[in-house]
Specification:
Blueprint: H1 3-9, H2 21-31, E1 38-42, E2 55-56, E3 66-67, E4 71-74, E5 85-93, E6 108-111, E7 123-126, E8 131-133, E9 136-139, E10 149-150, E11 161-163, H3 171-179, E12 184-188, E13 192-198, E14 202-203, E15 214-215, H4 218-228, E16 232-239, H5 243-256, E17 259-263, H6 273-281, E18 283-288, E19 291-292, E20 296-302, E21 305-310, H7 314-332, E22 342-347, E23 358-368, E24 371-376, H8 386-389, E25 393-397, E26 409-414
Parallel strand pairs: 5-6, 13-16, 13-17, 14-15, 17-21, 19-23, 22-24
Antiparallel strand pairs: 1-12, 2-11, 3-10, 4-6, 4-7, 5-9, 8-9, 18-20, 20-21, 22-26, 23-24, 23-25, 25-26
Helix pairs in contact: 2-7, 4-7, 5-6
This protein binds adenosine monophosphate and magnesium ion.
Magnesium ion binds at residues 198-199, 264-265, 270, 312.
Length: 419
């Protein structure tokens, strides 16, 4: 027995033939580690990548106290508490064109959004509530001290961490970095991940389909999911159910990759050689996960590469990728492998469910009479990729749960934002 299996078998509740989904994910996450390589890159190159160090703000954002509205900057203490106040308009300050002149007592400064508020003025009155008469602004009572006034550093404070290491950079972070004037960022290096499809029945697209063959679609969904995660994908093509060919492919992939994702060949019905081979080349555990779809899965290490041996059925590939491979790769790329966003919503229809396994139905979240409901997207066979394409969420029926009645609340994982 290899050392990985030995370590697993020492765990109290470890049953490779019936491993709950959460347990399998925990085991995987407890083993994989963040890669050490880093690189400096232009800030835009950071999109969908992971920050490798804290970004400390070198300046306040905004840099100056400024106006949040178009209107008049005044001293609140000079406004009458009842009735109107009339103040002479001394000058105009525009965004990027500050006013540095004198501000005698009892005067108002016409000011535009983003313009610096000179020291001494503390309140902005929006222009919509004012009148202008003979160079005077007429301000109604009821203005709040400090209103419509943006403080220097109210967004980001100089000296404080604006972003923490481990942050997956989205459009907001790219903009935030630019607001600091940051030109470059330090990123974790990209992961390199190999994809291998196994099976004698697989035909590569571009070739005519022979009798009994299916087109290899898994490599395309896997490639797409890995691209979305920001990985560099090494496409190893289709490998026949042939020990020598598979051994060569796995060994080749392990040489240069952080992870290898295979599909097919790990189910009990398959020729056993794939399992034997994986076990011989590295330290690999074969699991029957208590889930539907996606029961068989191999996980382990070949050389320095983590191996994710996913089942062959196209929907099972996607479900196991999102549930196990995605969090593992996020951790490896230095990001927080936070669980997918889940929430509760009422099921439009009754759902059949056996306790003792987690089921992932392809669901459609939709609005009816102002409220949100969910229902499965038609036939749910693990080979029916259309059910994924029509879905905008997974309906996750928890391990212990039994049948669901129409109207009952169910747990849903939205696919929006699921990379
Ligand atoms: P396996 O896990 O190898 O027994 O495969 C289970 C099912 O998934 C079989 O119907 C296979 O034909 C199908 N399958 C396996 N690999 C692929 C693939 N790369 N693309 C499409 N279908 C596949
Ligand atoms: Mg197969």
């Amino acid at each position: 027995m290899n050392s990985l299996l030995q370590a697993f078998s020492c765990l109290d509740d470890y049953d490779p033939d019936s491993l709950p989904v959460d347990r399998a994910r925990e085991l995987i996450l407890s083993l994989v580690e963040t890669v050490s390589g880093r690189e400096r890159a232009f800030v835009r190159q950071g999109l969908d990548r992971v920050l490798a160090e804290d970004v400390i703000a070198t300046m306040n954002v905004p840099a100056h106290d400024n106006s949040a509205m178009d209107g008049y900057a005044v001293r609140h203490a000079e406004l009458a508490s009842a009735g109107e106040t009339r103040l002479p308009i001394i000058a105009t300050a525009l965004a990027g064109r500050p006013y540095h002149g004198p501000l005698p007592p009892g005067s108002a400064l016409r000011i535009m959004t983003g313009a610096i508020v000179p020291e001494g003025l503390d309140t902005i009155v929006v222009q919509e509530v004012t009148k202008c008469e003979d160079g005077m602004v007429v301000i109604p009572a009821g203005q709040r001290a400090g209103q419509n006034y943006r403080r220097a550093g109210e967004d980001l404070k100089a000296g404080e961490a604006a972003l923490k290491a481990g942050k997956l950079l989205r459009p907001a972070e790219i903009g935030l970095l630019a607001s600091l004037g940051q030109v470059e960022v330090t990123l974790h290096r990209r992961l390199r991940v190999a994809v291998i499809s196994t099976g004698d029945e697989l035909c590569a697209i571009g070739s005519p389909l022979a009798d009994g063959q299916v087109y290899d679609s898994n490599r395309y969904t896997l490639w797409s999911m890995l691209q979305r995660l920001g990985c560099e994908v090494l496409d190893m093509g289709v490998v026949q159910d042939d020990p020598a060919a598979l051994e060569a492919a796995l060994a080749e992939a392990a040489k240069s990759c952080d992870a290898i994702v295979t599909s097919g060949g790990v189910s009990a019905g398959e020729a056993d050689f794939i399992r034997e081979l994986m076990a011989r080349l590295g330290e690999v555990a074969f699991w029957k996960i208590a889930m539907k779809p996606g029961r068989p899965m191999a996980f382990g290490k070949i050389g320095d590469a983590w191996l994710f041996g996913l089942p062959g059925n196209p929907v099972a590939v996607m479900v196991t990728f999102y549930q196990f491979v995605r969090p593992a790769l996020l951790k490896m790329m230095g990001a927080d492998p936070a669980p997918l966003t889940t929430f509760q919503v009422a099921s439009k229809v009754a759902l059949k469910k056996s306790p003792g396994r987690t089921e992932f139905l392809r669901g459609l979240l939709f609005q009816e009479q102002g409220g949100w409901l969910v229902q499965p997207t038609g036939a749910q066979g693990s080979g029916i990729l259309r059910s994924m394409s029509e879905a905008n969420c997974f309906i996750v029926l928890e391990h212990q749960r039994g049948n669901v009645a129409a109207g009952e609340m169910v747990c849903v994982q939205a696919m929006t934002g699921m990379v």
